[in-house]
Design brief:
By secondary structure, this protein is mainly alpha-helical. Helices cover 77% and strands 0% of the residues.
Length: 71
């Protein structure tokens, strides 16, 4: 709500990280085993997301970082 300044910044970072981790844990904890296994069956979608994340975006990012170092 308000920007953190000074010593409070470190505590806010820890609290934010803890809150996000707790949110993901609670969402995953309520997920049924059947739904989790059904999600794993979409291996083509997972492969596409991984390929874009680790290959395509890097191939696009390196030239942009070279041509525009201040971006």
């Amino acid at each position: 709500m308000l920007p953190a300044r000074g010593i409070v910044v470190a505590e806010c970072r820890h609290a934010t990280t803890l809150a996000i981790g707790l949110l993901f844990f609670l969402y995953g904890a309520r997920l049924s085993t059947r739904a989790a296994l059904a999600g794993l069956r979409h291996w083509r979608l997972h492969g596409l997301v991984l390929a874009f994340t680790f290959l395509v975006f890097r191939c696009w990012g390196f030239p942009v970082a070279y041509w525009c170092p201040t971006c």
